[in-house]
């Protein structure tokens, strides 16, 4: 159950909602026996492709706003192949309360399953505060492709406050735990050690047991005008993380596309 409660109750205002997607393998294809809509999330299954099930997460209202507590819980069962996308950008906006919004994505991938999480960019609008997290729990034979992009502020406005955390477990062991914060009073977020004056960022994570492990890092881009990106192996795992910053989302997208091509050619 979800709904906006009275805005004069700052501790409890906002939407509480968790949408759930479950995919399973049936013969030569993947089906989605469970899609549970909640709050602003409307789940729509699109045309399967090459045995992969595909689900689009559509937002039916402005969210996340201040005080919202939103979550997506996505599971690919054993040998399932699932792609989840969003058709439009997510915009973090200020709400009726100064309380931060939270948006938690939980991805669980069983043995020999494959999951792609490919949302459109997240835009941190002026005055908003959002804590976003993504937790990836992989079986040792599972594969995941995750791509996320952020734009700090709309045209001609400063960004809101945005914190993101990406945690990856493989076979129950930690692979990655990365936390980044932007905007507001966050120390040095727009300095040379973080964004260097850019306003767009993105990351691409690929974990796949078919990949070689511990290949050298690759500098994808190092140009003040076109952006910066590096592709880095995650130690002792067939896993790679690309991180990019640039002036525009288009530039970030091009850098991540190049990183993905490097991975596919390994």
From TrEMBL:
<comment type="function">
    <text>Required for maturation of urease via the functional incorporation of the urease nickel metallocenter.</text>
</comment>
<keyword id="KW-0963">Cytoplasm</keyword>
<comment type="subunit">
    <text>UreD, UreF and UreG form a complex that acts as a GTP-hydrolysis-dependent molecular chaperone, activating the urease apoprotein by helping to assemble the nickel containing metallocenter of UreC. The UreE protein probably delivers the nickel.</text>
</comment>
<protein>
    <recommendedName>
        <fullName>Urease accessory protein UreD</fullName>
    </recommendedName>
</protein>
<comment type="similarity">
    <text>Belongs to the UreD family.</text>
</comment>
<keyword id="KW-0996">Nickel insertion</keyword>
<keyword id="KW-0143">Chaperone</keyword>
<dbReference type="Pfam" id="PF01774">
    <property type="entry name" value="UreD"/>
</dbReference>
<dbReference type="InterPro" id="IPR002669">
    <property type="entry name" value="UreD"/>
</dbReference>
């Amino acid at each position: 159950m979800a709904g906006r409660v009275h805005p004069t109750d700052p501790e409890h205002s906002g939407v509480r909602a968790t949408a759930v997607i479950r995919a399973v393998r049936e013969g030569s294809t993947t089906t989605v026996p469970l899609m549970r809509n909640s709050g602003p999330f409307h789940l729509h299954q699109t045309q399967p492709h090459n045995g992969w099930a595909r689900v689009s997460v559509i937002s039916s209202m402005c969210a996340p706003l201040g005080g919202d507590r939103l979550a997506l819980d996505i599971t690919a069962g054993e040998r399932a192949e699932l792609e989840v996308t969003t058709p439009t950008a997510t915009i973090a906006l200020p709400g009726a309360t100064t309380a931060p919004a939270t948006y938690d994505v939980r991805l669980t991938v069983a043995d020999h399953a494959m999951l792609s999480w490919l949302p459109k960019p997240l835009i941190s609008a002026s005055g908003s505060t959002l804590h976003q997290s993504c937790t990836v729990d992989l079986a040792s034979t599972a594969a995941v492709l995750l791509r996320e992009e952020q734009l700090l502020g709309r045209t001609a406005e400063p960004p809101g406050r945005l914190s993101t955390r990406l945690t990856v477990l493989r076979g129950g062991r930690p692979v990655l735990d990365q936390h980044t914060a932007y905007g507001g009073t966050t120390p040095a977020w727009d300095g040379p050690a973080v964004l260097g004056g850019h306003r767009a960022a993105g990351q691409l994570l690929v974990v796949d047991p078919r990949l070689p492990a511990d290949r050298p890092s690759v500098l994808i881009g190092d140009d003040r005008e076109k952006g910066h990106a590096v592709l880095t192996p995650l130690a002792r795992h067939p896993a790679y993380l690309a991180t990019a910053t640039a002036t525009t989302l288009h530039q970030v997208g091009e850098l991540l596309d190049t990183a993905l091509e490097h991975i596919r050619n390994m």
